[in-house]
Amino acid sequence: xxxxxxxxxxxxxxxxxxxxxxxxxxxxxxxxxxxxxxxxxxxxxxxxxxxxxxxxxxxxxxxxxxxxxxxxxxxxxxxxxxxxxxxxxxxxxxxxxxxxxxxxxxxxxxxxxxxxxxxxxxxxxxxxxxxxxxxxxxxxxxxxxxxxxxxxxxxxxxxxxxxxxxxxxxxxxxxxxxxxxxxxxxxxxxxxxxxxxxxxxxxxxxxxxxxxxxxxxxxxxxxxxxxxxxxxxxxxxxxxxxxxxxxxxxxxxxxxxxxxxxxxxxxxxxxxxxxxxxxxxxxxxxxxxxxxxxxxxxxxxxxxxxxxxxxxxxxxxxxxxxxxxxxxxxxxxxxxxxxxxxxxxxxxxxxxxxxxxxxxxxxxxxxxxxxxxxxxxxxxxxxxxxxxxxxxxxxxxxxxxxxxxxx
Length: 407
Hints:
By secondary structure, this protein is of the alpha/beta class.
């Protein structure tokens, strides 16, 4: 199942460390290469000899024990396809969330630019501590995969949430991530993000509340699934994939049209302004004695509808729509109106999701009327779920996928 894959498991100083022996065996049975890095305190709960015997590899514990002049934290980070930290103590969770690198394990995490699974385990009161909750939320936001602890009887004598999640759950999540990393391999994915800016004069403009977080999360997810990604964004971002910075709806239209010719996927999550000022003033408009000012607006191009009309059968189109009432009904009407294959609908009447939030909840509708609801979660996780739903549905139709503009 995992032949050719390298798994790096980080073990910290919690009583649940002994459970990781079975996790190692699971990965070895799946033909994975398993390497172990421990904090010094982890060895109070499980021996180095046990871990070395199970993994059939040297167990790393301390920094600066270099071989061949290669720093361990870099060589371990470069050599693994995924890193799993289990159990992750409150101490290690907090260090990772705040960028501390005071031992080999945390130094490796800082240098690791591939998927990381963190499975915390701790006392119930520690898990409920507001500082730990804040650090967990921060890790979610940064894109770490968190497998939250389960409820039950704890080694400290308490009952409640704090037990390390099942080792088979950790194994299955790692397999899912490793397999999904090749899902879009060889595909070109275009994503748009942010709210367009329509200038009125040199100091004023028309825009909206879109932060671009959902679009950027989709681009990140597509990259993690092996795609060649082009992000067309009104937001400044520094990414390892190609980013095209745009400003207005016309800029975005031009960029999308120039990139779409060889695209397999186009995910336009941007909030494109419906109108722009007809006559842009090159000089700042001065305030006058009048209590009113009139701006004449003209309609912007509908990029979603435009690319739907020009696409061929190898491209499948979906769009985002923002609704504050009758979400599903309005989305179904919009998919017919625009001519796309999928609509991803957001409920903007809620303040806990959507614009500027780190969380979202969407309903996905395809052109055949099938409805899939994805429950509230952080946008990084939701982005992967969106791609999996659309691509999975698309694969069943034996077609390629292109997702498109926020309506």
